[in-house]
Amino acid sequence: MGAGVDLTILIADDDEGHVYLVRRNLERVGITNDFLHFTNGEALLDFLYMRGDGPHREAGRPYLLLLDIRMPRVDGIEVLRTIKQDPTLKLLPVIMLTTTDSPGEIALCHELGCSSYLTKSVNYEEFVDKIHNLGLFLRIAHMPTLQEDDLRSLEV
User: Fold this and answer.
1) What is the pairing mode between strands 145-146 and 34-38?
2) Residue spans per domain, the chain
3) Chain segment 114-140, per-residue pLDDT in tens
4) Which residues contact 29 (CB under 8 A, 6 or more apart)?
5) CA dist list (Å): 96 to 18, 36, 67, 135, 142
6) Are 24 and 17 in contact (CB under 8 A)?
7) pLDDT digits over 95-121, tens only?
8) In angstroms, rounded to a whole number, what is the distance separating the alpha carbons of residues 77 and 71?
9) Are strands 145-146 and 61-67 parallel, antiparallel or unpaired?
10) CB 150 within 8 A of CB 78
11) Are 67 and 94 in contact (CB under 8 A)?
12) DSSP 56-98
């Protein structure tokens, strides 16, 4: 299954403008999947670990996470570390989509298990081109499902 109708794209980014551009440009290449937006890492982890009153992930559904590094409450590095240490969530594909282009942070994200690392360009045309190419990739990529319906709580 590529970016089929079941795949939900999770976007964790506190910059509403970037989120809008990502969604709009993915839709332009035919990615019309459901999107869920989280403005901080804590809200994303609550969704993934099915905590609190907000929306919760569904077992058996494929997800893809586009994750920014610089976010309030819990940053993207800590979110990535938490996800990749969890037996159920470690299969979740995580694409770092961030303005941070530090070689040390890029290496750390790969060591922690990110699927890919894309730097948001400050140049509008370059940014749109990267999202366009991401959309083309998503049209052919296969995403794993998160099988376990686990109500564990994780201390962060």
Assistant:
1) unpaired
2) 8-146
3) 999 999 888 889 988 999 889 988 888
4) 132, 135, 136, 139
5) 13, 16, 5, 15, 18
6) no
7) 999 888 899 999 999 999 999 999 988
8) 10
9) antiparallel
10) no
11) yes
12) ---TTEEEEEEE-SS-SSS-HHHHHHHHHHSTTGGGS-EEEEE
pLDDT by residue (tens digit) across 40-83?
999 999 999 999 988 999 888 899 999 999 999 999 999 999 99
Whether the CB-CB separation of 57 and 35 falls below 8 Å is answered with no
- Between CA 140 and CA 145 the distance in angstroms is 16
Amino acid at 145: T
CA distance 106 to 100: 8
Residue 19: strand, helix, or coil: helix
- Rounded Cα distance, 153 and 100, in Å: 30
Give me the count of residues in the chain. 156
Strands in the chain per DSSP E: 8-12, 34-38, 61-67, 94-98, 116-119, 145-146
Superfamily of 8-146 according to CATH: Response regulator (3.40.50.2300)
